[in-house]
């Protein structure tokens, strides 16, 4: 059953709060069999479980948003127990920096894809974040314009879900 707070990924846009937003998805398209490194966006109903932001670049978008610090990372190492969890530097295993030089992760909505008890190799870090350029494919995440991402983040609730068909 759809809720008013749901984000719905359609073949052409992301629908939320009665509005349609242009979006990018993974270079591997949408899949029902997500694997680490396949570049695909996983089909399903995913809860929005977190909001991260760069306090040195943008104002806090919502009361529940958590600041990204210089040592914040995301483990994408399927061989490690911290796979698909936020970790801190120094971290010797495969990971992704959350505090990036580019603006892609200035604001990040975290989904519960393969989280918090990750099945190794099923894929990690399915985020909603800023796009590199309009409709440029991602590594599996959903990307939006900076303005649209901010607009959505300011209106999300803890009941919000991402529905990918």
TrEMBL record:
GO terms for biological process: cell wall organization; peptidoglycan biosynthetic process; regulation of cell shape. This is L,D-transpeptidase-like protein. The lineage of its organism: Bacteria, Pseudomonadati, Pseudomonadota, Alphaproteobacteria, Rhodobacterales. The keyword Chloroplast does not apply. Keywords: Cell shape, Cell wall biogenesis/degradation, Peptidoglycan synthesis, Transferase. GO terms for molecular function: carboxypeptidase activity; transferase activity. Pathway: Cell wall biogenesis; peptidoglycan biosynthesis. Residues 1-165 form the L,D-TPase catalytic domain. Transmembrane segments: none annotated. The keyword Iron does not apply. PANTHER family: BLR0621 PROTEIN (PTHR38589:SF1). It comes from the Bacteria.
């Amino acid at each position: 059953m759809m809720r008013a707070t749901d984000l719905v990924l359609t073949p052409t846009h992301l629908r939320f709060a009665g509005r349609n937003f242009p979006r990018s998805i993974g270079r591997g398209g949408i899949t029902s069999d997500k694997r680490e490194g396949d570049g695909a966006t996983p089909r399903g109903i995913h809860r929005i479980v977190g909001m991260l932001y760069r306090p040195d670049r943008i104002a806090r978008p919502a009361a529940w948003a958590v600041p990204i610090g210089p040592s914040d990372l995301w483990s994408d190492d399927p061989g490690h127990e911290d796979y698909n969890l936020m970790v801190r530097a120094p971290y010797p295993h495969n990971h992704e920096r959350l505090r990036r030089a580019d603006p892609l992760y200035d604001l990040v909505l975290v989904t519960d894809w393969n989280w918090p008890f990750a099945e190794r190799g099923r894929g990690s870090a399915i985020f909603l974040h800023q796009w590199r350029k309009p409709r440029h494919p991602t590594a599996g995440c959903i990307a939006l314009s900076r303005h649209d991402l901010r607009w959505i983040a300011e209106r999300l609730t803890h009941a919000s879900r991402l529905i990918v068909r």
